[in-house]
Write a structure and sequence with these properties.
Oligomer: single chain
Number of strands: 32
Structural class: alpha+beta
Distance between the termini: 60 Å
Length: 652
């Protein structure tokens, strides 16, 4: 468990931590000279059950609230410290507001310096504290009076912390590893060391990690978890990681960076979020307001873009888009705080909803519905809501932005019985009902097309995509069709889509013409067949009709248009592929010339070049200068399926 202090300057936060742990967390010379905490301090307290409680002591001075916010990252339990004699002060209220904005609900109030306050003063301070807590995440929290000078209440407070640590032991340890960096330094004999709180997942010695948002790659050489040497650091631990790698220095890693699983590295500078404006603010938050965004241990300038028409009034909550001056590493659901540009006042805060916010169409009803789905904390419920908005969801991005592992996301998809398919190596999911509806729609559209165009091999893929609702992005639609093809619903042939049971039948007239053309394209003249105009002259048919028929035959796979209006029989093209392969096999370096190919097919140079360029376009040959090499992985492209399968069996 990580315990964080909060409270006004000089109310005894550091002294309290020292009394509980025996550690003076003021480590800087300036802190000791001035007697105030400036930066974060850390201490540890072993619990009777073997656990270790970590303490983050934060500064109380208003000038160092940014450091206080950095220390609040990953806190499990809050000690709101109030001087029993002085009562609630300005930084008490601001720290309490920050605790509330960060959603920290576990904690208690410690009335320090109790020996300096009589019973009446203590009672008055307690009443004042209870009033301040009302309506916040710490409302109703216990209030305990202590004195570091006399020892009053210290043992009781320590026992309460031990009980809280046991109660919070079930903290989630799933997800991918993320550690929010609050310190980076060089340790003699070890190298670069970073410290911070593990927000999710776990890390082990030897793991590869990435420092985000910079993208610096590193390896974990050593771990100290909760101030003890360890092999593994887990969610809820304060960890020191000894990192190694090219470019890994203390200067290259700074407070606010996140060390995490490489799969999580996807910095963002535009985030849609839910913002609550503090009720104590005097003005509403308006459009394009400049602010300081505090997230984790990072601080970055930003602008607030309202996603509704009206400004967000004090005490109200609204949807906004945060446009950052520079990218940060974050996860969906992370808490943030906004302060004014002078860094003297906290304006409000909330949680991130969508890390991939659009720059356009960000205020449409569809976008608001999508954000409502993103606002759901439960991943399965959120995924179901997103699939009700969009036909397909990028499961990899969904998991990444929620810091989930691939296995966790896959398990959710499995329980929901979603259809899964890949688009350019990225895992996508679709609701089973949407998949089935799309299959029915595609089948009906293709059936209508076949009925109206029985002589065509199918419908163009892009035309079909535009005709079918919901209209999917082209890569997603192609991947869905590939899924349909595996289930024998449709068949894909290049840019054409047809029903799996559809076959093209030529008209009787076309069949008769094709019978004559086939004879003209084959035989001894097969390597130099007549062009369309010559065929038309021989057959005494209109040239455009012959061209139409040849184009149709090409789509049926009976001929191939090697050059404009120059068609070869498919089996002839396969024969020429074998000739090219043979030339490559007998060449010492596997390369052959156009002249060698011309001589084998006994054709003119111009036609031979056209044939080879046709092979180049289809990847059968790879050209370098005047030489070509055969690509063995494409040799089956123009061979009959049975012959290609036999060749593969022979290779095995």
């Amino acid at each position: 468990m990580i315990v964080g202090t909060a409270g006004h300057i000089d109310h005894g936060k550091t002294t309290l931590v020292g009394a509980l742990t025996g550690v003076d967390t003021d480590r800087l010379a300036e802190e000791k000279a001035r007697g105030i905490t400036i930066d974060l301090g850390f201490a540890y307290l072993p619990a009777p059950d073997g656990r270790v409680i970590g303490f983050v002591d934060v500064p109380g001075h208003e000038k160092f609230v940014h450091n206080m916010l950095a220390g609040a990252t990953g806190i499990d339990f809050v000690l709101l410290v109030v001087d029993a004699a002085e009562g609630v002060k300005p930084q008490t209220r601001e720290h309490l507001a920050i605790v509330d904005l960060l959603g920290l609900s576990h904690g208690l109030v410690v009335l320090t310096k109790a020996d300096l306050a009589d019973a009446d003063r203590r009672t008055a301070t307690e009443i004042e504290v209870e009033a301040a807590l009302a309506g916040t995440s710490l409302a109703g929290a216990p209030v305990l009076a202590v004195s570091a000078a006399t020892g009053e209440g210290i043992d009781d407070l320590r026992a309460r912390l031990f009980d809280a640590a046991e109660a919070l032991a079930a903290r989630r340890d799933g997800g991918r590893f993320r550690l929010a960096v609050d310190r980076s330094f060089t340790l003699s004999g070890a190298g670069t060391v970073v410290t911070g709180t593990v927000l999710s997942g776990s890390v082990a010695v030897g793991d590869r990690v990435v420092v985000s948002p910079s993208g610096l790659a590193a390896r974990v050489r050593g771990i100290h978890a909760q101030n003890r040497k360890a092999e593994i650091g887990r969610a809820g631990d304060r960890c020191a990681l000894n990192l190694a790698g090219d470019g890994v220095t203390k200067e290259a890693i700074r407070r606010g960076d996140v060390v995490g699983d490489p799969a999580l590295h996807a910095p963002t500078a535009r985030i849609d979020a839910e913002l609550r404006v503090l009720a104590t603010e005097k003005k509403a938050v308006g459009q394009w307001l400049p602010v300081h965004l505090h997230h984790g241990a990072s601080e970055v300038g930003a602008r607030v873009v309202l996603l509704a028409d009206a400004p967000i009034a004090p005490g109200d909550t609204g949807l906004v888009q945060l446009v950052l001056d520079r990218p940060i590493a974050a996860a969906r659901g992370d808490r943030f705080v906004l302060r004014d540009t002078s860094a003297r006042r906290t304006l409000g805060g909330g949680r991130f909803l969508d890390l991939r916010a659009p720059a356009r169409k960000r205020r449409t009803p569809e976008r608001r519905t999508e954000l409502a789905a993103q606002a759901i904390d439960d991943p399965a419920a959120a995924l179901a809501a997103l699939l009700a908005v969009a036909a397909a969801v990028d499961l990899d991005a969904f998991a990444r932005d929620r810091a989930m592992t691939t296995e966790e996301a896959g398990a959710i998809a499995g329980r929901m019985r979603l259809e899964r398919f890949a688009v350019r190596g990225v895992d996508q999911v679709m609701a089973a009902a949407t998949w089935e509806s799309l299959a029915r729609t595609v089948s009906a559209r293709l059936r209508l097309h076949h009925d109206q165009n029985p002589d065509l091999p199918g419908q163009g893929l892009e035309r079909l995509r535009l005709d079918v609702a919901p209209r999917l992005p082209a890569p997603v639609f192609r991947a869905v069709l590939q899924g349909f093809a595996k289930r024998r619903i449709v068949a894909l042939e290049g840019a054409w889509v047809r029903l799996a049971d559809h076959t093209v039948r030529l008209t009787d007239r076309d069949e008769a013409t094709w019978s004559e053309i086939r004879d003209l394209l084959g035989g001894t003249e097969r390597f130099r067949p007549p062009r369309v105009r010559d065929l038309a002259g021989t057959l005494e048919e209109p040239e455009e009709e012959v061209r139409r028929l040849m184009k149709l035959l090409a789509r049926l796979g009976r001929v191939d248009e090697v050059a404009h209006d120059h068609f070869f029989l498919r089996e002839t093209v396969g024969e020429m592929v074998d000739i090219a392969a043979d030339l490559g096999a007998i060449a010492t370096d596997g390369q052959f010339t156009a002249a060698a190919f011309r001589d084998r097919v006994e054709n003119g140079r111009k036609v031979a070049i056209q044939i080879l360029e046709f092979f180049d376009r289809h990847g059968i040959t790879l050209r370098r200068g005047d030489l070509r090499r055969v690509n063995p992985h494409r040799l089956d492209l123009f061979r009959p399926a049975a012959e290609a399968a036999k060749d593969r069996e022979d290779e095995v």
